[in-house]
Structures are given as structure tokens and as C-alpha cells.
Amino acid sequence: MNLSSFPPATPARPQALWRVHLQLLLMAVLWGATWSWGRVLAGSMPPLTAAAWRCVAASAALLWWMRRAGRLRAMLALPGRQWVRLAAAAALGVFGYAACFMSGLRLIPASRAAVITTLTPALTLLCGALLFGERLNGLIALGMALAVGGAAFAISHGQPLQLLDGGLGRGEWLILGCVVLWAGYTLAGRAVLTGMDAYTTATATTVLGGLMLLAASLAVDGVAGWRTAWHAPAQGWAALLALALLGTAVAYSLYFGGVKALGAGGAAAYLTLVPVFGMGLAALWLGEPVHISLATGGAVAVLGMALMHWGRRQDH
């Protein structure tokens, strides 16, 4: 998400700040839960069909919110050039990300996938420095090293040198694709979506990405894939609705509310908790074992995320 499009924080009353922090904590729980919900959904439907259904449901919820907030007409009136830019961003951050997300979660545990995504801030900051000349101070560099090292330790079962010998499977590569695509989406947002508010960007890219996923699912999964989805078990449909409504519409609303009250930096600090909740909820709901290498590497990677956040705040 392009946080530069947010206006400055509107200070909340001191007595209301605890509600803001609770809302952001709930946001982190919901985004952490998306990995478990995605794992359940990936086992119930073909990947592209599942991703398409998720985006369709999320689009309906976001469009309803935009209409209720009085922003829908302004979004539809955007010029054609802006829609082309939104489509390019949607291809990265919605279509590509969702396809890799659902395909990867068919192959590896949710907790493992959650740890891999701790690499996203490091890749985004590194690319920002190379492409846009953003400053990298010592704290950010240390955070990057810890995030990469911790993730490598976790996904290699405590033997990171094995990664040099092709120790990553297809599932890990697909989730790493999520990391690359989300970093690209964030950087594309800086380059082509400047000036758009975050709600409009999220809604428009979700709708456009959903249309892309619908076309791809019909081309790849075909009618048989949609028939499989229609006859999916109830827990699969429950996971889909949870992803679309709680993990997308509600979580985005909570996050944007936190940004309004605390600023982008203050709200983004809660993102460091997402992989923690991701691993914990996967163990609680899905019974996934949390090996010592996964827990240790995940903790180091989360510390790295926190250091990168603090380092960025120092430069601002």
C-alpha cells in the first residue's frame, strides 16, 4: 500500500487513543489470520478460482463502503489514464499476489508462509533506495540483515546454507513471489498513484485485479474449477468470506483509521505483529507445529522489521 497518499495524522483525543491502538491490534490479528484462512481455502478450491472468488467478495464489500462514504462517484469519474495506472498496479498487487498466495498455501504451512513475508519491508526499502534514492541508515541496514537472516533460518529448518543448494521448494518460491509482487505494488504506487487516497486505490485495484482473476480462472481452471468451488465444503466458503470481509474490508478500515489518528508510521508499527499472529493462529487453528527453528527465525525476522520501522522514523 502506498502510504505516501495518506494525509497527515489527525491527532486523536488522549482518552480515545487506547481505542485506536486496540483497533490496530485487531487489524494485526485479522491480517495474521489471513494465512490460516488462505490455507483452508487453498485446500478447498483451485487456486485461481479461490483467488477470484475472494476478490469478487472483497470488491463487493469495498464498493459498498465507497458508496456509503460518498466516494464511489468520484472513483468512477477518474480519467482513463489513471485507470490504466490502476490496472498496472492491480496486476502486481492483486492479480499476481493473490495467484501466488493461493498457489503457495496449497504447498506449504501457513506459519512458514507468514515468516517468508517478513522479507517484504527489506526488499521494498532496498528497491526504494536503488530506484528512488531513499536513505538507508545503520538501523535500517541492521533490520534488513536480521529480517533476511531470520527468514532464511526459519524456512531452511535452521540450516540456511542449504538454501544455496536449491533448498527452497515450489511453495516457498511462490510465497517469495508474493514478497516481490507486493514490493513492486508499493513502489508502483509511489510512481504512478501519487495523489490518490488509499481507499480509492484499494477499492479500484481490488476490483480490477478481481476481473483479471476471473478471466484467468475461467481460462485455466475452466468450468470444472468453478464446479469444484461451488461444491466446496462449508469451511472453505467460511474461509473465503473471512478473507474477503474480515481480512480485507474490515482490516483495511481499521488500518486506515489508525493511519488517520497516528500517522502512517505509527500505524505501520503494528504490521510487525502480523507474522507473529500468523504463526500463532496457524498453530492454534490448524495444528501446525511451531518448530524451534521457525519460532527463533521468525522472532529474529520480526525484530528486523521493527528495527527497519524505527530506522525510517529516525529519517523522518
How would you describe this protein?
With 316 residues, this protein is mainly alpha-helical. Helices cover 78% and strands 0% of the residues. The chain contains 13 helices and no strands. Helix 4 packs antiparallel against helix 8 (170-192). The chain is globular, with a radius of gyration of 19 Å. The relative contact order is 0.23.
- Mean pLDDT reading: 86
**Would you tell me the structural class of the helices and strands?**
mainly alpha
Q: Count all strands and give the number.
A: 0
Element order, helices and strands? HHHHHHHHHHHHH
Biggest pleated-sheet summary: none
Number of helices: 13
Q: Unreliable segments (pLDDT under 50, ≥5 consecutive)?
A: 1-8
Radius of gyration: 19 Å
Strand portion, in percent?
Answer: under 5%
